[in-house]
Design goal:
- The complex is a heterodimer of chains A (216) and B (190).
- With 216 residues, chain A is mainly α.
- Chain A has a domain of 95 residues.
- Chain A contains eleven helices and no strands.
- In chain A, α5 packs across α6.
- The longest helix of chain B is centred in the last third of the chain and has 17 residues.
- In chain B, β1 and β2 form a beta hairpin.
- Chain B has a two-stranded antiparallel sheet.
- By secondary structure, chain B is an all-alpha fold.
- Chain B has a domain of 100 residues: Orthogonal Bundle (Cytochrome Bc1 Complex, Chain D, domain 2).
- The relative contact order of chain B is 0.13.
- Classes of the chains: A mainly alpha (216), B mainly alpha (190).
- Chains A and B meet through α5 of A and α3 of B.
Amino acid sequence: MAQTFHQSTNTLSKLSIFGALFLVLGALWVTVEVNRAPYVTQEGVTREQPVPFSHQHHVGGLGIDCRYCHTSVEVSATAGLPPTKTCMNCHSQIWSNSPTLEPVRASFRNDTSIEWNKVNDLPDFVYFNHSAHVNHGVGCSTCHGRVDRMPLMAQAASLQMEWCLECHRHPERYVRPQAAVFDAAYEPPADQLVQGSRLVEDYGIHTRTSCSTCHR
Amino acid sequence: MRPLCVLCGMLVLVGCRQDMHDQPKFRPYRPTDFFGDGRSARPQVAGTVARGQLEEDTLLSSGKTGAAFADAFPVEVDEKVLRRGGERFRIYCSPCHGALGRGDGMIVRRGYRQPSSFHVDRLRAQPAGYFFDVISHGFGAMPDYAAQIPVKDRWAIVAYVRALQLSQNAAMADVPPDKRGELEPAPETP
């Protein structure tokens, strides 16, 4: 009896089994990459705000320190958003007739909150603490990017677990002198690894990778 | 075959639920519809005193002894306090008063009312408590900084303002000879 399939199909079927392996791996790889894509992580996404507050203007242009507005960043887990009174410190006199600032004045008059849209948003099962970072030589711009160039706030990092861990495993690649933590325009020196390792020692930084550091 | 596909599809979609990402609990600034003003962080109940709010030391909390401003510090002033004060001064005061307290800060250059320089006889003669009071309650067109600056930091700033007043009114002869080499040029006003 003649064979139903030509002999060459042997090779073909082996090839397709082999190919299926790549197909599965490929599919996995695509899934992983999609998960890292800015579309999923919101990296680089700018958010509309009720008042077009510009860090470029206030930080880059006027040179106001982060802590003038984010007062709790050195002492607590949350950086803190400024209450309307903080805006009115200056805007009671500056641009006090500008229609752009009407929501701020209305909020001050009526004692209501300005509802800022959250830009950096970790899942609720992750614990994060600002004071643990800014008091150990991790600068705002390492995580939040060049806010002094942002007319509207955008998320600068993926905020994924691998991103946190990359630094928690190798802090010497990122830490800077304590005096430069609030400098939005800081550029790491050419010998970052040498200086970083020294600072890691000076500041008593340990690699923190146990799950309960961030999931508690 | 078809039920299997539907089942697989459902399994994949289950992964899209965000229940653990958005748990029904309050993190800072999260809104609520339980209270009329929408704030989950509640203001302090009127007439109550929280820990640390009791003002036992009138000099510390008001800058006064009796009815008059005191010319004394309730905290010991050392180099650490001065450095802290300098840092806080640059954050909260220099936008208007300038890095040297001359009243030429960035916000003033953009049209805010110009404050008087700290280096006039009238202000050099004011007691320390006066400066503390201005920070805590504001003065004329100047807003108060009670909400932004904790009490101890306000005193550190006052100490730094005093140091500024001395340094801006000093001659080379006031500097001990062995320290003259350490003098740096004045910082640029931001």
